[in-house]
Q: What sequence folds into this?
């Protein structure tokens, strides 16, 4: 199975092959987007080193990020016990960002980008806890200053994928020229989907 990732650090190989089941998941992600270009994976020893590489200050909580065709990840031993996910989960999350970045015509809104990355990385959030935080007017106004951004994004993307299917969702993501008024990703459709869920619970 061809996954086209270049491990630029020996440590990555070790971590990667400890969870072989994710090879299948990488394959599914690449096939879903029909994106097969090589992606480099680099590993760093500290957030400072990562900041120097990026040429800008990276927030201290960051464990992974991405660029054009590279994933940049902190050594797993530094965040293994933080409860944020396994090594390959974070790797697949960042790989999804790389692929979305290179597959979309227009810049992908934050919530779609994060929600899709969490979907492919199987970073599952509980529906029950999340419904309460989905009382926003406009999902496009939510940014990283909102501590619930990942949960909200994941919840809404799952609603969309359940309704339209993964292939239609990705096709739309790749071809949409504008998201805000889109019939799938648009603000009004998101509010409609959330309302349907709320009404079905009454
Ligand atoms: Zn992300």
A:
């Amino acid at each position: 199975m061809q996954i086209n990732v270049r491990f630029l650090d020996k440590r990555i190989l070790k971590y990667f092959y400890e969870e072989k089941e994710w090879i299948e998941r990488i394959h599914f992600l690449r096939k879903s987007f029909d994106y097969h270009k090589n992606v480099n994976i680099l590993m760093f020893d500290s957030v400072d080193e990562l900041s120097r590489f990026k040429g800008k200050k990276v927030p201290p909580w960051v464990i992974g990020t991405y660029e054009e065709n590279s994933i940049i990840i902190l050594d797993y031993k530094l965040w293994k016990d933080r409860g944020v996910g396994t090594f390959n989960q974070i790797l697949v999350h960042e790989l999804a960002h790389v692929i979305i970045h290179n597959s979309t015509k227009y810049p992908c809104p934050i919530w779609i980008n994060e929600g899709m990355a969490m979907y492919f990385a199987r970073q599952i959030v509980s529906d029950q806890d999340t419904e309460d935080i989905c009382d926003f007017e406009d999902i496009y106004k939510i940014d990283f200053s909102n501590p619930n951004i990942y949960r909200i994004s994941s919840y809404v993307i799952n609603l969309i994928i359940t309704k339209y299917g993964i292939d239609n969702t990705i096709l739309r993501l790749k071809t949409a020229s504008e998201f805000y008024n889109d019939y799938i990703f648009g603000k009004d459709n998101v509010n409609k989907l959330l309302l349907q869920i709320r009404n079905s619970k009454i």
